[in-house]
Amino acid sequence: MDRLMSMVVVGVVAAVMVQSGAAQTVYVVGDSLNWTVPLNDAQAYSSWASNKNFTVGDILTFNFPTNQHNVLQVSNDSYNSCNSANPIGNTITTGPANITLSFSGENYYICTVGTHCQLGQKLAITVSATAGTTTATPPPPPPPPNSSSSVPVFDSFFLTVFCVVAMAFFL
């Protein structure tokens, strides 16, 4: 009877964890364009970001070939001037690069290779603390029709399953 009661308690705890677990979204920056110098469209990344709702905990995936591009988080001034003098963090030179959005507010990313940033390889987004309250900065013209490559990731679900299996094994 004690074992049955323990299993019920574990099940209830697992159900609560699944319901309260926050989902992350993985965004492939630029979708099929990936992270590269956009041809004939310096606003390509602004257009891409315009219909996305970025939230703390989401992940940006910058797909680029190693040694051809990089990604660096910078301030607004550095973003506007394509200057990497005052970076936020380190330059990521190995692609693909996954960056977890760790704070709300404006986030700016550039490629520091050659004149890539000046040619439009830069991204400005607004990250909200909670889902559904953000828009891209600055607002560009309407984006071309393109499906989002966002993928929900439910880490808490897998953690819950692991905990339930582990507790069932030890009870």
UniProtKB/TrEMBL annotation:
Domain Phytocyanin, first and last residues per copy: 25-129
GO cellular component, one term: plasma membrane
Keywords noted in UniProt: Disulfide bond, Glycoprotein, Membrane, Signal, Transmembrane, Transmembrane helix
TM stretches of this protein: 151-170
Tree of life domain: Eukaryota
SUPFAM superfamilies: Cupredoxins
Leader sequence residues: 1-23
InterPro entries: Cupredoxin, Phytocyanin-like, Phytocyanin_dom
One GO MF term: electron transfer activity
Official protein name in the record: Phytocyanin domain-containing protein
Organism per entry: Camellia sinensis
